[in-house]
Amino acid sequence: MPTQQASLNSLNLAQALVAALEAYGIRHAFCVPGESYLALLDALRDSSISLTVCRNEAGAAMMADAVGRATGRPGLCLVTRGPGATNAAPGIYIADRDATPMLMLAGQVDQRWRGRDAWQELDFTATFGAMTRWCGELDNPAHWEETLHRALHATTSGRPGPAVLALPRDLLSLAVPAPTRQFSPPSAIGPDPATLASLAKSWGAAARPLVILGGSGWSADACASFADFAAHYGVPVATSYRRASLFSADHPCYAGDLGLGANPRLVARVKASDFVLLLGGRLGEVPSQGYSLLTPEQAACTLVHVYPDAAEIGRVFQVQSGIVASPQAFVRALGGLDLGCPQRWQDEADAAHAAYQAWSQTPLPQPGAVNLGEIMVFLRDTLPQDTILCNGAGNYAAWIHRYYRFRSFAAHCAPACASMGYGVPAAVAMKRLYPQRPVICVAGDGDFLMNGQEFATQVQYHLPIVNIIIDNGSYGSIRMHQEREFPGREVATDLINPDFAALARAFGGFGATVTRTADFADAFRAAEASAMPAILHVKVAVEAITPTTTLSALRSGGIGKPAAS
Q1: Is 382 contained in some domain?
Q2: Which CATH number does the domain housing residue 38 bear?
Q3: Which domain holds residue 532?
């Protein structure tokens, strides 16, 4: 192992790593600086990689996840050892659950002190091994290319996901050979001709087919090609939970999304279908409506699952056919698929799209002076089609899913695992990645304050993002379940919030408060006109707990009342 320090004119390990990341195509990195990887930060200073400094490692990791989610290539975050790395765990978890390619490079204690419980030392494999595709530590600088390639390859091969590579501080300044390995993503897996022929036969025989799009690894071109294919045959298309931007809501074949509070008519359509193609997703608990959407018997007869990882096919639902292929490669292969007469299922598509439009068109009345559904309709009808909407988790999101309409690729950036605190950092990443596209963050009050410090990052980089905070003074989704199971016994869900508009101004941004639906449009236009990072503090009634019910209604029909003492 080399022991010499790199001279001013030679390549050290940190510089070699950065050069390799540049060659791989990494264009953005998100970090909280740490003294354990100062040499890597110094190497990035002179690189083509755009570095964004964040206010918490959770935010940096979520920004990296957002980039991976939008591009299909690994997003990159940099954190320090111990506390820094563990702070990033929420972002690693999201990337794991949502199958997002992502790489976290983490500083580590000096190699000479490993195993001595050194200051801020962390066993990375024990900590992150269960929620990464690969996790390891660079222990031999001579093998740095092999180790980095293994980490990058793991993020995109099979089921995508995160990888973590720990870098001992004292190795980063050592002289190493310049990069020689070709760093490139693995080739996309495609279906073979015999598989396509079998698929054409079973699909072509269907009377009521349906396609469900989901998962990661898509591209704008693949989505556009599939939209053309669906239009040619008139196939109804649904999207999985928080994957609605894979298929335009305005497309005449769009049937809606299978998320929380899904359209009952869409659920009924899936159950009545005699052929279901699940493309790219996994049909987990939420899109499968609590694993009730397809019975095991029905799935075995009708379900064809296309997924890049063979281990996921048939894992929950028995399938008629499993096709190991990435979404992009499968869509390319569809060009040679003959399903018979064009528009043969157009009547089914027309009925499915009409049901979606009726479900999402007109907001229902809501308690209080602010109707969140009407605000979503205003945004839907006002914002450009390429607008990117970012959000985390909370009951406020139910209005997004029902009334907003996504019309372009990567227009929605939100965790399918429903992790709170995601929207604000994701909006930073999307605006850094797509500076010409409008970016909106919608967050609940509890949701925003989990990573609201990244509003300072928006200000630092002059990112004109409009953050809409839906404030009902509550952890609303938990309160909803609380009233269902223990009616009238609220505990630990009420919140006392700051004046978010004043907070925005204190950070150096634009702030306004909205207490009536009629005032939202003017406040939103003022926020846009400011060309500054903005917060619109929208105060809503906690009674308006979902688009279709109230807390009072839940309380009166609650279950799980505690026994009398």
Answers
A1: yes
A2: 3.40.50.970
A3: 362-556
Question: pTM of the entire structure?
Answer: 0.94
Task: Say yes or no: 349 and 366 in one domain.
Answer: no
Assigned domain for 337 exists: yes
Collect all residues with Cβ–Cβ distance below 8 Å to 354 and sequence separation of at least 6.
none
Q: Per residue in 102-149, pLDDT tens?
A: 999 999 988 887 777 777 778 889 999 999 999 999 999 999 999 999
Poorest-confidence range of 105-119, 224-238, 428-442? 105-119
Of 239, 268, 240, 519, give the one whose Cα is nearest residue 374.
Answer: 519
* CA–CA dist 104, 533 (Å, integer): 27
**236: which 2 tokens?**
């109804």
Largest CA distance in the chain: 78
Report the distance separating Cα 224 and Cα 241, nearest Å: 20
Single out the residue in 118, 140, 171 at which a domain terminates. Answer: 171
Q: Which residues contact 565 (CB under 8 A, 6 or more apart)?
A: none
DSSP output for 231-271: HHHT--EEEETT-GGGS-TTSTTEEEEESTT--HHHHHHHH
272-296 pLDDT, tens per residue?
999 999 999 999 999 999 999 988 7
For 84, other C-beta atoms within 10 Å of its C-beta total: 23
Percent of the chain at pLDDT > 70 equals 96
- Alpha-carbon distances, residue 98 vs 59, 162, 182, 282, 516 (angstroms): 17, 10, 28, 10, 36
Give the single-character DSSP code of 12: B
Phi, psi of 511 (to 5 degrees): -140, 140
CATH no. for residue 211? 3.40.50.1220
Question: How many domains does the chain fold into?
Answer: 3
Q: CA 539, CA 533: separation in Å to the nearest integer?
A: 19
